[in-house]
Design a protein that fits this description.
about 10% strand, alpha+beta, about 300 residues, 4 strands, four-stranded antiparallel beta sheet
Length: about 300
């Protein structure tokens, strides 16, 4: 069931991206990032559909990644490419021009931002489900496997810079037009920001390290009120030589203020917290267990 749900999310995100290209991008004459940006410029100049170009690019790359990167990643990326190409082709051959965001060259910044936000949402879904939108994502995944220390910011920046610079000449008719390059850069920034935000906020938590002389009271209070346990470490203060207890506790975002209030109640207690981007294991199960025990 979980596998079916993951595949559904990938297909759903592909359909969303197809709508993004059809409604916001193609009609406003700017190229997004990566190989899809190149496909967009080719369609603009020659009329050769983005759908077919996406298949020509991503099917061979997916097959190569099946043998060179990871089978699950390759299959899911291919599924995305097929769903995206089919959806965009269907939209392109349908009489749905009334839903397109046409600016006629005015206020194009709005469809750029909107498309960046929605594309970032799609990227986040794909990355969370071990898939990608194809193109440069597959290349980056392969480079990551053979050279883990590669600076991918530089690689991605270089590829997107090529697309951005090329878009100046593709979309400029009789005069030099720098707007397509600016739109490409804005799209890249917004989509990357939203994608990273989606990845970070789904399982973000706070890790508290607490040094206290009130071990029993403190543990009892966070167990009863916050339904969390702690990891305990015995320690000795180097300045006084007194024995202390170090407690490590992971809490949810909405419990931050409650935890800080508990810490402030005890003297001889010092704490600090760090942001945890991902939590794994039976974290939710532990919370349910404590909640049941308390009631």
């Amino acid at each position: 069931m979980h596998k079916i749900w993951n595949h559904f999310l990938i297909v759903f995100s592909a359909v969303i991206l197809a709508f993004v290209y059809y409604i916001f991008i193609v009609t406003n004459n700017f190229a997004p990032a990566g190989l899809n940006g190149i496909a967009t410029m080719i369609q603009y100049k020659t009329g050769f559909s983005i759908s077919y170009m996406s298949l020509l690019i991503n099917v061979p790359l997916s097959i190569l990644s099946y043998f060179l990167v990871q089978k699950d990643f390759a299959v899911k990326t291919l599924l995305f490419a097929l769903a995206y190409s089919s959806s965009f082709l269907l939209l392109q051959n349908s009489d749905l021009s009334f839903i397109q965001y046409v600016t006629l060259g005015h206020d194009t910044i709005y469809p750029v931002i909107l498309s960046g936000v929605l594309a970032g949402f799609v990227y986040g879904i794909c990355f969370k489900n071990n898939a990608s939108t194809g193109g440069t994502d597959i290349v980056a995944r392969y480079i990551n496997k053979i050279k883990p220390g590669t600076n991918f910011f530089f690689v991605t920046f270089t590829l997107n810079a090529i697309v951005a610079i090329a878009s100046i000449f593709v979309y400029s008719e009789n005069i030099f037009n720098y707007k397509p390059m600016a739109f490409c850069i804005i799209y890249c920034f917004v989509s990357t920001f939203v994608g990273n935000l989606l990845l970070k906020t789904t399982k973000t938590a706070y890790k508290f390290t607490v040094i206290t002389s009130h071990r029993d009271e403190f543990v009892e209070e966070i167990t009863q009120n916050l339904h969390h346990g702690c990891t305990e470490i015995d320690a000795i203060g180097t300045y006084t030589g007194a024995k202390k207890t170090v407690l490590i506790c992971i809490i949810n975002k909405h419990q931050l203020n409650d935890f800080q209030k508990i810490v402030s109640k005890y003297d001889n207690t010092f704490s600090y917290f760090e942001i945890v981007n991902e939590t794994y294991g039976n974290f939710k199960h532990i919370k349910r267990h404590h909640r049941t025990a308390c009631h």
